[in-house]
Design goal:
Elements: H1 3-16, H2 18-38, H3 47-61, H4 66-78, H5 80-85, H6 88-93, H7 95-100, H8 102-126, H9 131-137, H10 144-154, H11 158-182, H12 188-210, H13 212-239
Helix pairs in contact: 2-3, 2-4, 8-9, 8-13, 10-11, 10-13, 11-12, 12-13
Length: 243
């Protein structure tokens, strides 16, 4: 076997190893977080989007398929569940405030499901998007794993939904706090609910950087929005004639 053939065999082994995807993800995210901190937590240098762009570029340059990368990346993907459950701790710390605001929160959440889904669908329709694309856009404001499951269930394009969900979260994390400042909103519970409704996990991470209270309410909104959308969206789209 020639040297080139040996190198090719070694590279193939590296590409197919689960440790490659896992190591790449951790390394890139650590670098992105360092850049984010050095920028003074500039929302434009969001570590999630920076990590995504670097990983995409790496996969293209090294000619590595997403399937090969995800054999290791799915180990981190699995941790999304425990990470979401851990939000129960700050929620418990804010339980007294949540009880007082429970009815307004529920009304806001249900309204957001209708407005968020149908505004996205009709704008996409106005711009000439196909029915499959419109359906894929509908769950964009739900945390990515749940959005993907909803999209698959209603006949959407799962990969498109995942990309839109991440993009929605990043945009919300970047613009959310600036919009709150412009609107002179000072109550962290209100800001948290708005962030969780529109920007799910990525927005919630940004909310925790502002305050524990804002993060707790954002986590609550994210969780209930995911549940409400998963339960209501197929039924709503069916009644509206989209399914």
């Amino acid at each position: 076997m020639s040297i080139d053939e040996r190198l090719a065999a070694v590279w193939l082994l590296i590409q197919s190893s689960p440790l490659t995807g896992l190591g790449l993800t951790l390394l890139v995210y650590c670098l992105a977080m360092k850049l984010y901190k050095e920028s003074g937590h500039n929302p434009l240098i969001n570590p999630v989007i920076v990590s995504v762009l670097i990983i995409i570029a790496t996969l293209i340059i090294t000619d590595t398929s997403y399937q090969q990368y995800f054999t290791g990346g799915e180990l981190i993907h699995f941790l999304l569940g425990p990470a979401t459950v851990s939000l129960a701790v700050p929620l418990y710390m804010q339980l007294h405030r949540i009880k007082k605001l429970l009815l307004p929160i529920l009304i806001t959440l249900v309204s957001s499901v209708f407005i968020g889904c149908f505004s996205a669908i009709y704008i996409a329709d106005w711009l000439g998007a196909s029915l499959a694309t419109q359906i894929s856009i509908a769950p964009k404001s739900v945390t990515t794993p749940v959005a993907m499951g909803i999209s698959e269930n209603i006949g959407g394009i799962v990969s498109l939904t995942a990309g839109l969900a991440v993009t929605t979260g990043v945009i919300g994390a970047i613009l959310g706090t600036k919009i709150f400042s412009l609107m002179a909103i000072k109550d962290d519970s209100i800001k948290g609910i708005a962030m969780g409704l529109t920007s799910h996990g990525i927005g919630t991470a940004r909310a925790f950087q502002v305050s524990d209270q804002m993060g707790a309410f954002s986590g609550l909104a994210m969780a209930i929005t995911a549940f409400t959308t998963a339960f209501m969206l197929p039924w709503i789209l069916s009644l509206a004639g989209f399914l």
